[in-house]
Protein backbone atom coordinates (compact mmCIF):
# COMPACT_ATOMS: atom_id res chain seq x y z
CA UNK A 1 0.00 0.00 0.00
CA UNK A 2 0.86 3.68 -0.20
CA UNK A 3 0.47 6.17 2.64
CA UNK A 4 -0.75 9.68 2.03
CA UNK A 5 0.24 12.07 4.78
CA UNK A 6 -2.41 14.77 4.89
CA UNK A 7 -1.49 18.37 5.58
CA UNK A 8 -5.10 19.51 5.24
CA UNK A 9 -5.43 20.12 1.49
CA UNK A 10 -8.88 20.07 -0.04
CA UNK A 11 -7.41 17.78 -2.72
CA UNK A 12 -6.01 15.03 -0.46
CA UNK A 13 -8.94 12.72 -1.12
CA UNK A 14 -8.45 13.22 -4.86
CA UNK A 15 -4.87 11.94 -4.52
CA UNK A 16 -6.21 8.88 -2.72
CA UNK A 17 -8.80 8.28 -5.39
CA UNK A 18 -6.24 8.62 -8.18
CA UNK A 19 -4.01 6.07 -6.43
CA UNK A 20 -6.93 3.68 -5.94
CA UNK A 21 -7.94 4.10 -9.58
CA UNK A 22 -4.46 2.94 -10.47
CA UNK A 23 -5.35 -0.28 -8.57
CA UNK A 24 -3.08 0.51 -5.65
CA UNK A 25 -4.46 0.54 -2.13
CA UNK A 26 -3.70 3.64 -0.09
CA UNK A 27 -4.65 5.21 3.20
CA UNK A 28 -4.82 8.83 4.26
CA UNK A 29 -3.45 9.65 7.70
CA UNK A 30 -3.01 13.03 9.38
CA UNK A 31 0.61 14.17 9.00
CA UNK A 32 1.24 14.16 12.77
CA UNK A 33 -0.04 10.68 13.38
CA UNK A 34 2.63 8.06 14.06
CA UNK A 35 2.64 5.12 11.72
CA UNK A 36 4.51 1.87 11.75
CA UNK A 37 7.28 1.46 9.19
CA UNK A 38 5.97 -1.82 7.80
CA UNK A 39 7.16 -3.67 4.73
CA UNK A 40 3.77 -3.51 3.00
CA UNK A 41 4.15 0.26 2.57
CA UNK A 42 5.65 0.87 -0.86
CA UNK A 43 5.77 4.64 -0.88
CA UNK A 44 4.64 7.84 0.84
CA UNK A 45 2.90 10.86 -0.69
CA UNK A 46 2.96 14.24 1.07
CA UNK A 47 -0.20 16.21 0.34
CA UNK A 48 -0.84 19.88 -0.28
CA UNK A 49 -1.91 22.21 2.51
CA UNK A 50 -3.65 25.51 3.18
CA UNK A 51 -0.54 26.47 5.21
CA UNK A 52 2.65 28.08 3.93
CA UNK A 53 6.00 26.50 4.76
CA UNK A 54 6.98 29.95 6.01
CA UNK A 55 4.10 30.18 8.52
CA UNK A 56 5.06 30.02 12.17
CA UNK A 57 4.23 26.50 13.41
CA UNK A 58 3.68 25.17 9.92
CA UNK A 59 2.96 21.43 9.86
CA UNK A 60 6.06 19.30 9.36
CA UNK A 61 7.08 15.66 9.14
CA UNK A 62 10.51 14.05 9.27
CA UNK A 63 11.02 13.65 5.53
CA UNK A 64 14.59 12.39 5.85
CA UNK A 65 13.46 9.59 8.15
CA UNK A 66 10.56 8.62 5.89
CA UNK A 67 12.70 8.76 2.77
CA UNK A 68 15.35 6.59 4.40
CA UNK A 69 12.81 3.75 4.22
CA UNK A 70 10.42 4.68 1.39
CA UNK A 71 10.24 6.53 -1.92
CA UNK A 72 8.52 9.89 -1.37
CA UNK A 73 6.41 12.14 -3.59
CA UNK A 74 5.70 15.68 -2.38
CA UNK A 75 2.74 17.45 -3.96
CA UNK A 76 2.50 21.25 -3.75
CA UNK A 77 3.04 21.96 -0.01
CA UNK A 78 4.68 18.54 0.24
CA UNK A 79 7.15 19.58 -2.46
CA UNK A 80 7.80 22.98 -0.86
CA UNK A 81 8.34 21.42 2.55
CA UNK A 82 10.85 19.02 1.02
CA UNK A 83 12.72 21.85 -0.69
CA UNK A 84 12.79 24.00 2.41
CA UNK A 85 13.72 21.18 4.80
CA UNK A 86 16.90 20.33 2.92
CA UNK A 87 18.11 23.88 2.37
CA UNK A 88 16.20 25.21 -0.63
CA UNK A 89 14.43 28.57 -0.74
CA UNK A 90 10.63 28.91 -0.80
CA UNK A 91 9.15 32.40 -1.05
CA UNK A 92 5.90 34.12 -1.66
CA UNK A 93 5.32 34.30 -5.41
CA UNK A 94 5.26 37.74 -7.00
CA UNK A 95 1.84 36.81 -8.22
CA UNK A 96 -0.35 34.05 -6.86
CA UNK A 97 -0.55 31.19 -9.25
CA UNK A 98 -3.89 29.50 -9.64
CA UNK A 99 -5.26 27.42 -12.46
CA UNK A 100 -3.85 26.43 -15.81
CA UNK A 101 -0.12 26.20 -16.56
CA UNK A 102 2.01 24.14 -18.91
CA UNK A 103 5.13 22.25 -17.95
CA UNK A 104 8.41 22.60 -19.78
CA UNK A 105 10.28 19.38 -19.22
CA UNK A 106 13.96 20.12 -18.54
CA UNK A 107 15.25 16.65 -18.04
CA UNK A 108 13.79 13.38 -19.13
CA UNK A 109 12.84 11.07 -16.28
CA UNK A 110 10.78 7.93 -15.77
CA UNK A 111 8.21 9.99 -13.84
CA UNK A 112 7.34 11.65 -17.19
CA UNK A 113 6.55 8.42 -19.04
CA UNK A 114 3.40 9.15 -21.04
CA UNK A 115 3.54 12.85 -20.15
CA UNK A 116 4.06 15.30 -23.00
CA UNK A 117 6.24 18.37 -22.89
CA UNK A 118 3.84 21.32 -22.63
CA UNK A 119 1.21 19.20 -20.90
CA UNK A 120 -1.41 21.17 -18.98
CA UNK A 121 -1.14 21.10 -15.20
CA UNK A 122 -3.22 22.76 -12.49
CA UNK A 123 -1.65 25.10 -9.98
CA UNK A 124 -3.01 26.30 -6.67
CA UNK A 125 -0.35 27.96 -4.54
CA UNK A 126 0.91 31.32 -3.42
CA UNK A 127 4.48 30.28 -2.53
CA UNK A 128 7.01 29.01 -4.99
CA UNK A 129 10.31 27.21 -4.82
CA UNK A 130 13.03 29.66 -5.85
CA UNK A 131 16.08 27.45 -5.38
CA UNK A 132 16.48 23.76 -4.72
CA UNK A 133 18.69 22.19 -2.06
CA UNK A 134 22.08 20.96 -3.10
CA UNK A 135 21.91 17.54 -4.69
CA UNK A 136 18.51 18.13 -6.27
CA UNK A 137 17.67 18.49 -9.95
CA UNK A 138 14.99 20.54 -11.67
CA UNK A 139 12.90 18.25 -13.86
CA UNK A 140 10.38 20.80 -15.17
CA UNK A 141 9.52 24.50 -15.10
CA UNK A 142 6.50 26.50 -16.24
CA UNK A 143 6.47 29.93 -17.82
CA UNK A 144 5.98 31.53 -14.43
CA UNK A 145 7.87 29.34 -11.97
CA UNK A 146 11.44 28.04 -12.02
CA UNK A 147 10.69 24.72 -10.27
CA UNK A 148 7.53 22.83 -11.23
CA UNK A 149 9.00 19.34 -10.71
CA UNK A 150 12.20 18.15 -9.11
CA UNK A 151 13.96 15.11 -7.76
CA UNK A 152 16.73 14.27 -5.37
CA UNK A 153 19.89 12.93 -6.97
CA UNK A 154 20.28 9.39 -5.76
CA UNK A 155 23.02 6.83 -5.73
CA UNK A 156 23.10 3.19 -4.79
CA UNK A 157 20.35 2.24 -2.42
CA UNK A 158 18.95 5.75 -1.84
CA UNK A 159 15.19 5.90 -2.11
CA UNK A 160 13.82 8.24 -4.77
CA UNK A 161 12.30 11.56 -3.70
CA UNK A 162 10.20 13.65 -6.08
CA UNK A 163 8.42 16.97 -5.74
CA UNK A 164 5.63 18.40 -7.90
CA UNK A 165 4.57 22.01 -7.44
CA UNK A 166 1.30 21.44 -9.28
CA UNK A 167 -1.59 19.09 -8.47
CA UNK A 168 -1.35 15.93 -10.61
CA UNK A 169 -4.47 14.54 -8.87
CA UNK A 170 -6.97 17.07 -10.22
CA UNK A 171 -8.97 16.59 -13.38
CA UNK A 172 -7.47 19.64 -15.09
CA UNK A 173 -3.93 18.28 -14.92
CA UNK A 174 -4.62 16.37 -18.09
CA UNK A 175 -1.79 13.83 -17.82
CA UNK A 176 -1.51 13.98 -14.04
CA UNK A 177 -2.79 10.42 -13.63
CA UNK A 178 0.21 9.22 -15.66
CA UNK A 179 2.56 11.00 -13.25
CA UNK A 180 0.87 9.33 -10.30
CA UNK A 181 0.93 5.93 -12.02
CA UNK A 182 4.63 6.36 -12.80
CA UNK A 183 5.35 7.12 -9.17
CA UNK A 184 3.38 4.09 -8.04
CA UNK A 185 4.62 1.56 -10.56
CA UNK A 186 7.98 2.75 -11.85
CA UNK A 187 9.28 4.45 -8.71
CA UNK A 188 7.69 2.46 -5.86
CA UNK A 189 7.25 -0.87 -7.64
CA UNK A 190 3.61 -1.27 -6.64
CA UNK A 191 1.77 -4.31 -7.94
CA UNK A 192 -1.68 -3.07 -8.83
CA UNK A 193 -3.69 -5.70 -7.04
CA UNK A 194 -6.33 -3.37 -5.60
CA UNK A 195 -9.23 -4.51 -7.78
CA UNK A 196 -12.91 -5.07 -7.00
CA UNK A 197 -12.48 -8.83 -7.49
CA UNK A 198 -9.58 -9.02 -5.02
CA UNK A 199 -11.43 -6.80 -2.59
CA UNK A 200 -14.44 -9.10 -2.63
CA UNK A 201 -12.37 -12.26 -2.10
CA UNK A 202 -10.26 -10.79 0.68
CA UNK A 203 -13.13 -9.05 2.45
CA UNK A 204 -15.34 -12.13 2.45
CA UNK A 205 -12.46 -14.18 3.91
CA UNK A 206 -11.82 -11.57 6.55
CA UNK A 207 -15.52 -11.26 7.44
CA UNK A 208 -15.73 -15.01 7.88
CA UNK A 209 -12.88 -14.85 10.35
CA UNK A 210 -14.01 -11.83 12.34
CA UNK A 211 -17.70 -12.73 12.51
CA UNK A 212 -17.35 -16.46 12.97
CA UNK A 213 -20.73 -17.96 13.81
CA UNK A 214 -22.15 -14.81 15.38
CA UNK A 215 -25.37 -13.28 14.10
CA UNK A 216 -25.46 -9.85 12.45
CA UNK A 217 -28.46 -7.54 12.20
CA UNK A 218 -28.52 -4.75 9.64
CA UNK A 219 -30.90 -2.10 8.39
CA UNK A 220 -30.85 -2.11 4.59
CA UNK A 221 -32.34 0.81 2.71
CA UNK A 222 -32.16 -0.18 -0.93
CA UNK A 223 -29.38 2.39 -1.31
CA UNK A 224 -25.92 1.66 -2.69
CA UNK A 225 -23.87 1.46 0.50
CA UNK A 226 -26.14 -0.69 2.65
CA UNK A 227 -26.91 -3.05 -0.24
CA UNK A 228 -23.27 -3.62 -1.13
CA UNK A 229 -22.25 -3.99 2.52
CA UNK A 230 -25.05 -6.47 3.20
CA UNK A 231 -24.20 -8.52 0.12
CA UNK A 232 -20.56 -8.83 1.23
CA UNK A 233 -21.59 -9.85 4.73
CA UNK A 234 -24.08 -12.31 3.29
CA UNK A 235 -21.38 -13.89 1.12
CA UNK A 236 -19.42 -14.49 4.30
CA UNK A 237 -22.07 -15.68 6.74
CA UNK A 238 -25.19 -16.42 4.68
CA UNK A 239 -28.35 -16.73 6.74
CA UNK A 240 -26.67 -15.43 9.88
CA UNK A 241 -27.17 -11.97 8.40
CA UNK A 242 -30.57 -10.63 9.38
CA UNK A 243 -31.41 -7.71 7.13
CA UNK A 244 -34.35 -5.41 7.81
CA UNK A 245 -35.82 -3.33 4.99
CA UNK A 246 -38.53 -0.96 6.14
CA UNK A 247 -41.26 0.53 3.97
CA UNK A 248 -41.57 3.95 5.56
CA UNK A 249 -44.37 4.97 3.20
CA UNK A 250 -42.27 7.63 1.48
CA UNK A 251 -40.28 5.46 -0.90
CA UNK A 252 -40.51 5.86 -4.66
CA UNK A 253 -43.23 4.12 -6.69
CA UNK A 254 -42.96 0.31 -6.45
CA UNK A 255 -39.56 0.67 -4.76
CA UNK A 256 -40.41 -1.56 -1.81
CA UNK A 257 -41.32 -4.55 -3.99
CA UNK A 258 -38.51 -3.94 -6.47
CA UNK A 259 -35.81 -3.73 -3.83
CA UNK A 260 -37.09 -6.83 -2.04
CA UNK A 261 -37.04 -8.65 -5.37
CA UNK A 262 -33.40 -7.65 -5.91
CA UNK A 263 -32.51 -8.84 -2.42
CA UNK A 264 -34.20 -12.13 -3.12
CA UNK A 265 -32.16 -12.56 -6.28
CA UNK A 266 -28.99 -11.76 -4.35
CA UNK A 267 -30.06 -14.43 -1.87
CA UNK A 268 -29.93 -11.99 1.03
CA UNK A 269 -31.74 -12.91 4.21
CA UNK A 270 -33.79 -9.72 4.37
CA UNK A 271 -37.15 -9.19 6.00
CA UNK A 272 -39.42 -6.56 4.51
CA UNK A 273 -41.38 -4.62 7.13
CA UNK A 274 -44.38 -2.68 5.92
CA UNK A 275 -44.59 0.13 8.45
CA UNK A 276 -46.27 2.70 6.21
CA UNK A 277 -49.17 3.39 8.53
CA UNK A 278 -46.95 3.79 11.55
CA UNK A 279 -44.99 6.46 9.70
CA UNK A 280 -48.09 8.18 8.33
CA UNK A 281 -49.62 8.43 11.77
CA UNK A 282 -46.45 10.08 13.12
CA UNK A 283 -46.37 12.46 10.16
CA UNK A 284 -50.02 13.45 10.46
CA UNK A 285 -50.45 17.15 11.13
CA UNK A 286 -46.70 17.85 10.88
CA UNK A 287 -45.65 20.61 8.49
CA UNK A 288 -42.24 21.70 9.79
CA UNK A 289 -39.43 20.08 7.73
CA UNK A 290 -37.20 19.33 10.70
CA UNK A 291 -40.08 17.90 12.72
CA UNK A 292 -40.95 15.68 9.74
CA UNK A 293 -37.33 14.51 9.46
CA UNK A 294 -37.20 13.70 13.18
CA UNK A 295 -40.53 11.88 13.06
CA UNK A 296 -39.22 9.65 10.29
CA UNK A 297 -35.84 9.08 11.96
CA UNK A 298 -37.36 8.23 15.33
CA UNK A 299 -40.07 6.00 13.90
CA UNK A 300 -37.43 4.13 11.93
CA UNK A 301 -35.46 3.44 15.08
CA UNK A 302 -38.61 2.24 16.86
CA UNK A 303 -39.43 -0.15 14.03
CA UNK A 304 -35.86 -1.44 13.85
CA UNK A 305 -35.73 -1.87 17.59
CA UNK A 306 -39.01 -3.81 17.59
CA UNK A 307 -37.74 -6.08 14.83
CA UNK A 308 -34.46 -6.72 16.61
CA UNK A 309 -36.35 -7.82 19.72
CA UNK A 310 -37.96 -10.55 17.65
CA UNK A 311 -34.53 -12.01 16.95
CA UNK A 312 -32.40 -13.91 19.39
CA UNK A 313 -28.68 -14.04 19.94
CA UNK A 314 -27.75 -11.05 17.77
CA UNK A 315 -24.24 -9.87 18.61
CA UNK A 316 -23.25 -7.62 15.76
CA UNK A 317 -24.60 -4.68 13.75
CA UNK A 318 -23.79 -4.33 10.05
CA UNK A 319 -23.36 -0.86 8.57
CA UNK A 320 -22.60 0.65 5.19
CA UNK A 321 -20.13 3.25 6.50
CA UNK A 322 -17.73 4.35 3.75
CA UNK A 323 -14.24 5.89 3.77
CA UNK A 324 -15.17 9.59 3.46
CA UNK A 325 -17.27 9.15 6.66
CA UNK A 326 -14.28 8.06 8.69
CA UNK A 327 -11.18 9.76 7.26
CA UNK A 328 -9.51 11.72 10.00
CA UNK A 329 -9.09 15.15 8.52
CA UNK A 330 -6.61 17.87 9.37
CA UNK A 331 -8.49 21.02 10.34
CA UNK A 332 -7.60 24.12 8.35
CA UNK A 333 -8.15 26.20 11.46
CA UNK A 334 -5.01 24.86 13.03
CA UNK A 335 -3.05 21.65 12.90
CA UNK A 336 -5.55 19.73 14.99
CA UNK A 337 -7.55 16.70 14.10
CA UNK A 338 -11.28 16.46 13.80
CA UNK A 339 -13.12 13.26 13.14
CA UNK A 340 -16.29 13.59 11.15
CA UNK A 341 -19.17 11.94 12.87
CA UNK A 342 -20.83 9.56 10.48
CA UNK A 343 -24.54 9.85 10.06
CA UNK A 344 -25.17 6.45 8.47
CA UNK A 345 -25.56 5.11 11.97
CA UNK A 346 -28.97 6.72 12.19
CA UNK A 347 -28.78 7.17 15.95
CA UNK A 348 -29.53 3.65 17.07
CA UNK A 349 -30.37 3.30 20.75
CA UNK A 350 -27.45 2.84 23.13
CA UNK A 351 -29.17 -0.22 24.51
CA UNK A 352 -28.23 -1.96 21.28
CA UNK A 353 -24.62 -2.35 22.31
CA UNK A 354 -23.54 -4.38 19.35
CA UNK A 355 -20.14 -4.76 17.78
CA UNK A 356 -20.00 -3.05 14.38
CA UNK A 357 -19.31 -4.77 11.06
CA UNK A 358 -18.37 -2.20 8.41
CA UNK A 359 -16.96 -3.90 5.32
CA UNK A 360 -16.90 -0.69 3.24
CA UNK A 361 -15.03 1.40 5.79
CA UNK A 362 -12.07 1.88 3.47
CA UNK A 363 -13.88 2.41 0.17
CA UNK A 364 -14.76 5.54 -1.74
CA UNK A 365 -18.24 5.75 -3.24
CA UNK A 366 -17.09 4.95 -6.78
CA UNK A 367 -15.28 1.88 -5.44
CA UNK A 368 -18.42 0.77 -3.60
CA UNK A 369 -20.28 0.83 -6.93
CA UNK A 370 -17.56 -1.20 -8.68
CA UNK A 371 -17.57 -3.76 -5.88
CA UNK A 372 -21.37 -3.85 -6.22
CA UNK A 373 -21.07 -4.70 -9.92
CA UNK A 374 -18.56 -7.39 -9.05
CA UNK A 375 -21.10 -8.86 -6.63
CA UNK A 376 -23.77 -8.96 -9.33
CA UNK A 377 -25.93 -6.16 -7.93
CA UNK A 378 -27.98 -4.60 -10.76
CA UNK A 379 -26.45 -1.54 -12.44
CA UNK A 380 -29.67 0.47 -12.04
CA UNK A 381 -29.57 0.17 -8.27
CA UNK A 382 -25.87 1.05 -8.05
CA UNK A 383 -26.02 4.07 -10.34
CA UNK A 384 -29.29 5.56 -9.15
CA UNK A 385 -29.51 9.23 -8.27
CA UNK A 386 -29.06 9.99 -4.57
CA UNK A 387 -32.32 9.82 -2.65
CA UNK A 388 -32.74 11.42 0.78
CA UNK A 389 -33.37 9.24 3.83
CA UNK A 390 -36.69 10.99 4.64
CA UNK A 391 -37.68 10.23 1.05
CA UNK A 392 -40.71 11.82 -0.52
CA UNK A 393 -41.69 13.30 2.86
CA UNK A 394 -39.37 16.26 2.26
CA UNK A 395 -40.59 16.55 -1.32
CA UNK A 396 -44.19 16.97 -0.21
CA UNK A 397 -44.16 20.47 1.19
CA UNK A 398 -46.33 20.74 4.28
CA UNK A 399 -48.30 17.83 5.62
CA UNK A 400 -47.67 14.33 4.30
CA UNK A 401 -50.46 11.80 3.79
CA UNK A 402 -50.95 8.61 1.78
CA UNK A 403 -52.94 10.35 -0.93
CA UNK A 404 -50.24 12.95 -1.58
CA UNK A 405 -47.52 10.30 -1.51
CA UNK A 406 -49.41 8.36 -4.14
CA UNK A 407 -49.74 11.44 -6.36
CA UNK A 408 -46.07 12.32 -6.06
CA UNK A 409 -44.93 8.74 -6.63
CA UNK A 410 -46.73 8.73 -9.96
CA UNK A 411 -45.31 12.07 -11.04
CA UNK A 412 -41.81 11.06 -9.92
CA UNK A 413 -41.99 7.77 -11.81
CA UNK A 414 -43.05 9.54 -15.02
CA UNK A 415 -40.23 12.07 -14.68
CA UNK A 416 -37.57 9.45 -13.93
CA UNK A 417 -38.66 7.16 -16.75
CA UNK A 418 -38.65 10.09 -19.19
CA UNK A 419 -35.11 11.08 -18.11
CA UNK A 420 -34.02 7.53 -18.87
CA UNK A 421 -35.92 7.33 -22.17
CA UNK A 422 -34.42 10.61 -23.32
CA UNK A 423 -30.91 9.50 -22.23
CA UNK A 424 -30.68 12.40 -19.79
CA UNK A 425 -30.64 10.42 -16.54
CA UNK A 426 -26.87 9.96 -16.32
CA UNK A 427 -26.03 13.56 -17.18
CA UNK A 428 -28.10 14.77 -14.24
CA UNK A 429 -26.69 14.34 -10.71
CA UNK A 430 -30.05 14.25 -8.98
CA UNK A 431 -33.64 14.75 -10.09
CA UNK A 432 -36.99 14.62 -8.39
CA UNK A 433 -40.47 16.03 -8.24
CA UNK A 434 -41.79 18.29 -5.50
CA UNK A 435 -45.46 18.52 -4.59
CA UNK A 436 -46.34 22.10 -3.74
CA UNK A 437 -48.97 22.81 -1.10
CA UNK A 438 -50.94 25.16 -3.32
CA UNK A 439 -53.87 24.58 -5.62
CA UNK A 440 -54.48 26.58 -8.75
CA UNK A 441 -57.13 26.82 -11.42
CA UNK A 442 -56.93 24.90 -14.65
CA UNK A 443 -59.23 23.71 -17.37
CA UNK A 444 -59.64 20.18 -18.68
CA UNK A 445 -62.17 19.65 -21.47
CA UNK A 446 -65.12 21.77 -20.47
CA UNK A 447 -64.35 21.50 -16.83
CA UNK A 448 -62.64 23.90 -14.53
CA UNK A 449 -60.09 22.15 -12.27
CA UNK A 450 -58.62 23.26 -8.97
CA UNK A 451 -55.62 21.06 -8.28
CA UNK A 452 -52.02 20.80 -7.09
CA UNK A 453 -48.77 21.89 -8.76
CA UNK A 454 -45.66 19.74 -9.16
CA UNK A 455 -42.21 21.28 -9.50
CA UNK A 456 -39.55 19.39 -11.43
CA UNK A 457 -36.04 19.58 -10.01
CA UNK A 458 -32.87 18.45 -11.77
CA UNK A 459 -29.34 19.49 -10.90
CA UNK A 460 -25.80 18.95 -12.02
CA UNK A 461 -23.26 18.62 -9.24
CA UNK A 462 -20.17 16.74 -8.11
CA UNK A 463 -20.93 16.20 -4.45
CA UNK A 464 -24.23 17.91 -3.72
CA UNK A 465 -22.49 20.73 -1.86
CA UNK A 466 -22.96 23.10 -4.76
CA UNK A 467 -25.28 22.49 -7.68
CA UNK A 468 -26.55 24.13 -10.83
CA UNK A 469 -30.01 23.56 -12.24
CA UNK A 470 -29.77 21.24 -15.22
CA UNK A 471 -30.48 22.93 -18.54
CA UNK A 472 -32.88 20.25 -19.77
CA UNK A 473 -34.28 20.63 -23.30
CA UNK A 474 -37.63 22.44 -23.63
CA UNK A 475 -39.04 19.54 -25.67
CA UNK A 476 -38.25 17.19 -22.85
CA UNK A 477 -39.86 19.44 -20.23
CA UNK A 478 -42.95 19.82 -22.44
CA UNK A 479 -43.19 16.04 -22.74
CA UNK A 480 -42.91 15.47 -18.98
CA UNK A 481 -45.42 18.23 -18.22
CA UNK A 482 -47.96 16.67 -20.59
CA UNK A 483 -47.46 13.19 -19.23
CA UNK A 484 -47.84 14.24 -15.62
CA UNK A 485 -50.89 16.44 -16.11
CA UNK A 486 -52.64 13.89 -18.32
CA UNK A 487 -51.91 10.91 -16.11
CA UNK A 488 -51.76 12.01 -12.51
CA UNK A 489 -55.11 12.82 -11.03
CA UNK A 490 -54.96 15.86 -8.77
CA UNK A 491 -52.18 17.70 -10.61
CA UNK A 492 -52.98 20.36 -13.20
CA UNK A 493 -49.76 22.37 -13.37
CA UNK A 494 -46.04 21.60 -13.73
CA UNK A 495 -43.22 24.10 -13.21
CA UNK A 496 -39.43 23.80 -13.55
CA UNK A 497 -37.08 24.91 -10.77
CA UNK A 498 -34.27 27.09 -12.15
CA UNK A 499 -32.46 27.86 -8.90
CA UNK A 500 -28.87 26.93 -8.20
CA UNK A 501 -27.32 25.97 -4.87
CA UNK A 502 -26.35 28.24 -3.22
CA UNK A 503 -28.46 30.27 -2.59
CA UNK A 504 -31.23 27.66 -2.98
CA UNK A 505 -30.82 24.02 -1.91
CA UNK A 506 -31.42 20.89 -3.97
CA UNK A 507 -34.40 19.76 -1.94
CA UNK A 508 -37.17 22.22 -1.12
CA UNK A 509 -37.32 21.31 2.54
P1 LIG B 1 -29.81 20.02 -0.06
O1 LIG B 1 -31.29 20.08 -0.17
O2 LIG B 1 -29.30 20.32 1.32
O3 LIG B 1 -29.43 18.50 -0.35
O4 LIG B 1 -29.13 20.85 -1.11
C1 LIG B 1 -28.12 18.04 -0.57
C2 LIG B 1 -28.18 16.53 -0.74
O5 LIG B 1 -28.57 15.93 0.51
C3 LIG B 1 -29.76 15.19 0.35
N1 LIG B 1 -30.57 15.40 1.56
C4 LIG B 1 -30.74 14.48 2.53
N2 LIG B 1 -30.31 13.20 2.62
N3 LIG B 1 -31.40 13.01 4.71
C5 LIG B 1 -30.65 12.47 3.71
O6 LIG B 1 -30.27 11.30 3.81
C6 LIG B 1 -31.88 14.27 4.68
O7 LIG B 1 -32.57 14.72 5.60
C7 LIG B 1 -31.53 15.04 3.51
N4 LIG B 1 -31.80 16.32 3.14
C8 LIG B 1 -31.20 16.51 1.94
C9 LIG B 1 -30.41 15.74 -0.90
O8 LIG B 1 -31.27 14.79 -1.51
C10 LIG B 1 -29.21 16.08 -1.76
O9 LIG B 1 -28.70 14.94 -2.43
Structural summary, described in words:
- This is GMP synthase [glutamine-hydrolyzing].
- Homodimer.
- Its EC number is 6.3.5.2.
- It comes from Polluticaenibacter yanchengensis.
- Pfam families: GATase (PF00117), GMP_synt_C (PF00958), NAD_synthase (PF02540).
- The protein has about 500 residues and is an alpha/beta fold.
- It has three domains: about 1-185, 3-Layer(aba) Sandwich (Rossmann fold); about 195-380, Rossmann fold; about 405-495, GMP Synthetase, Chain A, domain 3, CATH 3.30.300.
- About 30% of the residues lie in helices and about 25% in strands.
- The chain has 14 helices and 21 strands.
- The protein has helices at about 10-20, 65-70, 75-85, 175-185, 195-210, 225-235, 255-265, 275-285, 290-310, 325, 365-375, 380, 400-420, 475-485, and strands at about 1-5, 25-30, 45, 70-75, 90-100, 105, 120-130, 135-140, 150, 160-165, 215-220, 240-245, 270-275, 315-320, 330, 335-340, 355, 430-445, 445-460, 465-470, 490-495.
- The strands form five sheets. An eight-stranded mixed sheet has the order 2-1-3-4-10-9-8-6, sandwiched between helices. Strands 13-12-11-14-17 form a five-stranded parallel sheet, with helices on both faces. Strands 18, 19, 20 and 21 form a four-stranded mixed sheet that branches.
- Strand 1 (about 1-5), helix 1 (about 10-20) and strand 2 (about 25-30) form a beta-alpha-beta unit.
- Helix 5 (about 195-210) crosses helix 6, helix 5 (about 195-210) packs across helix 11 (about 365-375) and helix 8 runs antiparallel to helix 9.
- The longest helix has 21 residues, at about 290-310.
- The protein is globular and about 85 Å long.
- It starts with a strand and ends in a 13-residue tail after the last strand.
- The model is unreliable at about 335-345 (pLDDT under 50).
- It binds xanthosine-5'-monophosphate.
- Xanthosine-5'-monophosphate binds near residues 293, 390, 464, 505 and 507.
- The site of xanthosine-5'-monophosphate has 11 residues, from loops.
